[in-house]
Records
---
Amino acid sequence: RVELRVPLLRQHAEIREGDAVEMVVGSDKSYFAEFEAVREAYFPASGAWVGEYPFLDRRAMPAISGRIARDAEERDVWARPGGNRVDTGGVRGPPS
């Protein structure tokens, strides 16, 4: 669980506790067990950003977010026993 403390702005009105959020973080710990310096957070469902200053090029994040979602869906398909395998045009997925 991550808690962000930022000034409340009108564009934050659609954000609810428990909403999915994507952040770029840095950590000295393996597996990101602990991290610091969360500068910005992106809420893909509403397209809202939280952060005091735009450190990232925010125009790129929706595309990155979409790719994260597609990759997660593909992993879910491959993880299902006997799951539907999709023709990937010769790109090989994880071994069965």
Note: Helices lie at 61-79.
---
Amino acid sequence: PLGRKMHTCIISCYDKAGKNGRKEQIEQCSQQCQIPYQTAGNATQQEITNFQNRLNRAMMQCNDDAQGMVTPDMQDDPRKMKRVEDSLLKCLEGAIQNSNGGLKPMRQRIESHMS
């Protein structure tokens, strides 16, 4: 719908200008028509970037926590290292599940920019 509005607006720029319209006038009008579309695109990109950043921070925290569990004597003990690995995987799974919970609100925010 937003893309359609933009194109309809641009067509109306040409209609208003008629055959004798100045090129600069048409370009300026067309640029104004594109602003809502560009704004929505920027907002969408920002939402995606924020989502990725939150997920990356959570995953880095899991990695830091796992590294903090490792002691020098564990390096040669596969059982202990397996526990650290299991803890890391459980943390990562939780981080992903938490992030999934933010997808619906993110979608709603993106859709609000599209109207």
Note: The chain has a mean pLDDT of 92.
---
Amino acid sequence: LVDKWRQSHDSWLLRFALPPGRKYLGNDPSLPTCISVHHNSSFDEDDKPLKKSYSPVSHPAAEGIFDLLVKSYRPQPGGGVGDAICNLQPGQHLVGKLKS
């Protein structure tokens, strides 16, 4: 996480840096993409880490960064990814996978 800005009482705009060697989030900077965020501190009923998909609000051709607009819901059983992401502080990172 590079920076974060509160958008409303329960929403944050979060700016993340891409890993070294990665210029764009997606494989094609002219096409929108989606990222699956993995929350390894919460698990579903099958004991698998929770995941949630987000579509970046930044342009696909943004170099070196991507922005997510995330709503922070109170954690409940089987949930809590948004709350965990919104509680990250600059310098912390998330685990995600590019969806194709």
Note: The first strand starts at residue 3 and ends at 8.
---
Amino acid sequence: NYFADSSDEAAADESTDTTSTEGFLADVSRQWESAADVDNARVVKCRMGVVLSKKGGALGKLYLPFWLGGGGIVGNGKQYFTFVSARDAARALVH
């Protein structure tokens, strides 16, 4: 599913029609996933949030700028931030 950028609405689940979701990331996701479809080939499309780890990933890249005072408040605090730990992401892909 592609989720709208709104904290005022309930998040979609598997039964929700999200084909009309608009926006840059929704468009890119649709194009990217449709490009992966190949005739007569099994394709698995794994959607995850931002991967966080103390050893790297997005958190590793963001830590230093915030520690040096370059970070700040991002948004109004009501936006979604989906994430998954690096360990859980690896286990999901291997499973």
Note: The helical segments are 24-36, 57-67, 86-94.
